[in-house]
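Dear support,

I submitted the protein below through the web form. The confirmation email said the job was done, but the results page showed an empty box. After a refresh the structure appeared. I'm attaching both so you can tell me whether what I see now is the final result or a partial one.
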Amino acid sequence: MLLEAKHLGREVNSKILLQDINFSVAAGEVIAIIGPSGSGKSSLLRLLNRLDEPTSGTVYFEGKDYRETPPRELRCKIGMVTQRAYLFPGTVAENINFGPNQRGESLEREALEKLLSQVSLAGFADRNVTNLSGGEAQRVSVARTLANKPEILLLDEPTSALDETAKSDVEALLQSIMHERSLTCILVTHDEAQAMRMAQRALILQAGRIVKDGFIKEVLHA
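What the results page shows now:
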């Protein structure tokens, strides 16, 4: 398995956010995490690349306890796209090069333009991020994450802040990239229809626990 969560939990100020989370993810698999508000969906995603630290259990990535890998290195391999695109001041190119620059690298202009073309932003490299629409900003966020060549892509409600047109476009973009790269993906969404379109498997969370895990059609139609 590419990733395994074993007895994973997080407690903050005596409040249990997640408890005894156990699941595994195979390479190339797309999993949707579904549940009501406050069930722990985003908390779980943040634990998977150590934006937050577990207070119990751990995660194994490629068979190795992920606490043995420096967080910055881990977040390159397990990348995240959040609900809102948090871009740094500057140009699109500077944002996309952030990850490679952290490793002492830089994307060649040709590679940068190719990546922008993949997210339907050809010619946007020198554009200031303050001049982007919501959908364009989210595409830059996706490109910035892909620039790190992640093995797993975490998506936290990636289209919920967008209007319907931009939502449809970004969803189609993500599906295309996932298919083209055979990318392993864990998607948090409140939209069951979106989950059905994008994922093969679903985890249902309630009150910080997994209550169902299985093929998405079976789980959602149960």
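Response: this is the final, complete result; the empty box was a page-load delay. The beta strands are 3-12, 15-25, 30-34, 56-61, 64-65, 78-81, 152-156, 184-188, 201-206, 209-215.
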